[in-house]
Amino acid sequence: MTEETPETPDLDPVLKTGASKRNIDAARKALSRIYELGWEPLAPYPGSDTHWQVRCLFGCGEDGKNWEGVMFFSQCG
Q1: Fewer Cβ within 10 Å of end Cβ, the chain: N or C?
Q2: 39-41: strand order across its sheet
Q3: pTM confidence score
């Protein structure tokens, strides 16, 4: 997803029910930042300060394996 492609990002079902422009913009910002930092989302964007299942693509785990787990988007700065 880039600024040139305005497709709607994958949102958590709770956010989809009342998907506002604010939710969609927040999801785009979060996804952009997640990819920029070398993470891959494993679940739809859940909203801010909510656990999000992700995978590190740079061998962040033990023995250089790609770590998977939950994080808060706000941890991404």
Answers
A1: C
A2: 39-41, 52-56, 68-71
A3: 0.68
What is the CA 74 to chain-centroid distance, rounded?
Answer: 10
**49-74 residue pLDDT tens:** 788 888 888 877 667 667 777 776 55
Phi, psi of 7 (to 5 degrees): -60, 155
What are the pLDDT digits (tens) for 2-33?
Answer: 444 456 677 777 776 667 888 888 888 888 88
Check: CB of residue 26 under 8 Å from CB of residue 15.
no
